[in-house]
Design a protein that fits this description.
The chain is α+β, with helices and mostly antiparallel strands and 169 residues long. The protein has four helices and eight strands, in the order αβααβββββββα. It is globular.
């Protein structure tokens, strides 16, 4: 039995506080949202915050398969990410690792890329899909670097771009 001494938070509360969760409901079929995450050509159209493009997107979409993609800002700064697909439940969820890298896929310290202190070098990202009445909700969650985590705004803007891509057909 675990006793909570001294008023400290239990480990589950602490873990929940460190999770970033961003959800968006799209008026689009589940299959189309799944393809937006699993097909490199679709992924390149929306991934990243406003003002960023995705010039590189390689996806080996299998459990144990890898991804390598980049985001390029309007001023030419390019960031690279790689990881492994850890769990795939078709049309339901994706779990993958994500690590900031150089252009050759070598892991980088996040602070070297201007990320806030405490940003994880690698993290697991969970993407959950739910579908109801012709609408699909996508929820992304991963560890957070703190209350002003820039990833929250990045995901919100990426989802906004995804909505625009879906609306354009």
């Amino acid at each position: 039995m675990f006793t909570n001494f001294g008023g400290t938070k239990n480990i589950m509360d602490q873990l929940e506080e460190k999770q970033l969760k961003v959800s968006r409901t799209f008026e689009a079929p589940l299959e189309l949202l799944w393809q937006a995450w699993t097909d490199p050509e679709h992924f390149k159209k929306w991934y990243g915050p406003k003002g960023f493009s995705t010039p590189i997107c390689e996806i080996d979409f299998n459990e144990g398969g890898s991804h390598f993609w980049s985001m390029k800002s309007s001023n030419g700064m390019q960031m690279y990410y790689s990881g492994i697909y850890k769990r795939i439940v078709p049309m339901e969820s994706i779990v993958y690792s994500d690590t900031m890298t150089d252009e050759n896929g070598n892991a980088l310290d996040p602070s070297a890329m201007g990320m806030p202190e405490g940003s994880p070098a690698s993290m697991d990202v969970s993407v959950i899909f739910s579908h109801e009445d012709g609408k699909t909700t996508v929820t992304v969650s991963h560890i957070s670097s703190g209350p002003k985590d820039p990833a929250a705004m990045g995901w919100e803007q990426a989802f906004e771009k995804l909505g625009e891509v879906l609306a354009a057909g």
